[in-house]
Amino acid sequence: MAVDVNLIKQLREQTGAGIADCREALEESSDDMAKAKDYLKAKGLDKAASKAEREVKAGVVETYSHNGKVGVLVELLCETDFVAKTEDFKTLAHEIALQIASMNPENVEELLKQDYIRDNSQTIDALVKAAVAKLGENIQIGRISRIALGSQ
Predict the structure, then answer these.
(1) CB 70 within 8 A of CB 151
(2) pLDDT tens for residues 83-110?
(3) What is the model's pTM?
(4) How far apart are CA 79 and CA 75, in angstroms?
(5) Residue 125 · residue 112 · CB < 8 Å
(6) CA 121 vs CA 29, 115, 116, 124, 137: distances in Å
(7) Residue 61: which region, alpha, beta or left (left: phi > 0; alpha: psi -120 to 50)?
(8) Which of the listed residues 51, 53, 89, 115 has the most CB atoms within 10 Å of its CB?
(9) Are residues 41 and 71 in the same domain?
């Protein structure tokens, strides 16, 4: 069965997955976009697990200040400078910084378990794994720090 090119394009735009992966997902789901997204998500989590042991030696330190009252530093690590310079990676770092400013996790482990503030249907861990699937590299949150004015 031939998959409609427009459906592949639409799924690719919505998920960031590769053309071949989108075609496969649509074939497996009989052109059902919701099922195709679920298929890609499951496949992405499998990809994330296979990359988890790879060494991370590049990345960014994201800074965020909320009205000068709360400051956040996030070390987000990846395998190469190439990925660290992408907009998707920079956006992920910023979203994690916003999460820390808002939810004040004690450590990285607690942060990963938290519901994502922009979409409580997924956790921060799921957000990072989705980025791993999309960017094709191991991504890890290194260190986090949050300072609130007037607190100890």
Answers:
(1) no
(2) 999 999 999 999 999 999 999 999 999 9
(3) 0.71
(4) 13
(5) yes
(6) 22, 7, 8, 10, 24
(7) beta
(8) 89
(9) no
Tell me how many domains the chain contains.
2
Task: Please give the single-letter amino acid code of residue 36.
Answer: A
Beta strands in 11-139 (DSSP E): 58-66, 70-78, 115-116, 119-123
- Same domain? For 19 and 65 the reply is no
Q: 147 in helix, strand or coil?
A: strand
107: amino acid identity, one letter: N
Contact present, 37 and 55 (Cβ < 8 Å): no
Cα–Cα nearest to 55, from 38, 24, 21, 78? 78
Question: In terms of domains, do 140 and 70 share one?
Answer: yes
Note down the domain range covering 43: 5-51
Distance CA 133, CA 92 (A): 13
24 contact partners, CB below 8 Å, separation of at least 6 = 39
How far apart are alpha carbons 127 and 119 in whole angstroms? 10
